[in-house]
Amino acid sequence: MDLFFSFKEVLSAFVVLFAVIDILGAIPIIISLEQKDQTFEAGKAALISFVILVAFLFVGQALLALFQVDISSFAVAGGLVLFVLAVEMIFNIEIFKNDSPGGTATIVPLVFPLIAGAASFTTLLSLRAEYNILNIIIAVALNMIVVYVVLKKVYVVEKFFGKSGIYVMRKFFGIILLAIAVRLITANLTSLIGSL
Q1: What pLDDT is stored for residue 94 in this prediction?
Q2: Rounded CA gap, 130 and 78, in Å?
Q3: pLDDT confidence of 2, banded at 50, 70, 90?
Q4: Domain-located, residue 30
Q5: How many domains is the chain built from?
Q6: Which end of the chain is more exposed for a tag (fewer CB within 10 A), N or C?
Q7: Neighbours of 42 (CB within 10 A)
Q8: Is there a contact between 80 and 185 (Cβ–Cβ < 8 Å)?
Q9: Domain range holding 110?
């Protein structure tokens, strides 16, 4: 496995994952959890999410091999999922109903499905079709730092960006995600057709 650092790849993977995880868009959900007296540990949530995402980055490809699915086919499927997710972000449609058992909210719904959910898993394997694994891991780590800061200072972040600022950012990243989804689908579809 070649390890090749590329700032461009790290930045690109970071933006894609940031848009998919959408921690800023989840701020109202996080605040509502706190208002329902559900506690969570920011550091623990970020660390568990990082471990799960990186583990899936390695195990995910083996799972694909088990089902005899190549990475390009999965990238096209992942691109379609990202496409739908982007449309949902742009048109403000909720995917998950964020209910969790009373008490702690660290694992459910924070780690799963908000941070390390189906969309994140799909995105990781789709990114693996195009980017070096080292750059993806760095991008995941950087995103988990952002997640930690947002969870730790949720009210400060909301006040800094404002409700309208968070709304605009969600739409903006939704459009970026839509463009990336289209690129993922077309690039991998071309390679699949070429291999026939």
Answers
A1: 66
A2: 13
A3: low
A4: no
A5: 1
A6: C
A7: 18
A8: yes
A9: 40-93+101-194
